[in-house]
Automatic annotation (TrEMBL):
The lineage of its organism: Bacteria, Bacillati, Bacillota, Bacilli, Bacillales. The gene is gmk. It comes from the Bacteria. Keywords: ATP-binding, Cytoplasm, Kinase, Nucleotide-binding, Transferase. It holds the Pfam family Guanylate_kin. It comes from Paenibacillus dendritiformis C454. This is Guanylate kinase. SUPFAM superfamilies: P-loop containing nucleoside triphosphate hydrolases. One of its GO terms (molecular function) is ATP binding.
Length: 196
């Protein structure tokens, strides 16, 4: 008996700003070379070392609004004065080819994706504590106190939305967080689903 080609899994990793989503995702991609990373678009300025088309597609506000108007985004959200969004075509093509794809996005965007992809794997990345989260944000050295206060308020609000996710993973150590996420992906591939 021949197995039908199955669709890939959409894995959504999100959590509050400063929790280490980017670092965990980068490490996870090294551990799982077949996992495809979905590059988001944003209107925020690049941080030191970030590369257009690798970390984000850096867009002007006008370019981003044009993508919204032309239905080129799977989701988009405004966060701390900047737009973030997931380009639609690449995600759908990757899933249809049977490959897993990971989205590293903010909580607002993740909840919009869940409306369109309820069978996705939604993972909420938590800091060990709020104090540790604030230390991480301050350690970046890229935001002033007003922005940091806003991010901390947003973090508390976002953590209250954790119930909308399938899994919660504490990012206490990057390697341990990656092992936990890898275990989740393996378990999901072994799960029996009527539609797969």
């Amino acid at each position: 008996m021949e197995m039908n080609m199955k669709k890939g899994f959409l894995i959504v990793l999100s959590g509050p700003s400063g929790v280490g989503k980017g670092t965990v995702c980068k490490s996870l991609l090294k551990r799982l070379p077949d996992l495809i990373y979905s590059v988001s678009a944003t209107t925020r300025q690049p941080r030191l070392g970030e590369v257009d088309g690798v970390n984000y597609f850096f867009k002007s506000r006008e370019e981003f609004l044009d993508m919204i108007d032309n239905d080129k985004l799977l989701e988009h959200a405004e966060y701390v004065g900047n737009y973030y969004g997931t380009p639609r075509d690449f995600v759908e093509q990757t899933l249809n080819e049977g490959q897993d794809i990971i989205l590293e996005i903010e909580v607002q965007g993740a909840l919009k994706v869940k409306e369109k992809f309820p069978n996705g794997i939604f993972i909420f990345l938590l800091p060990p504590s709020l104090d540790e989260l604030e230390d991480r944000i301050r350690g970046r050295g890229t935001e002033n106190d007003t922005v940091i206060d806003h991010r901390m308020t947003a973090a508390v609000e976002e953590m209250a939305m954790m119930a909308n996710y399938d899994y919660a993973v504490v990012n206490d150590e990057i390697d341990l967080a990656c092992k936990r996420i890898e275990s989740i992906i393996i378990a999901e591939h072994c799960k029996i689903r009527p539609n797969r």
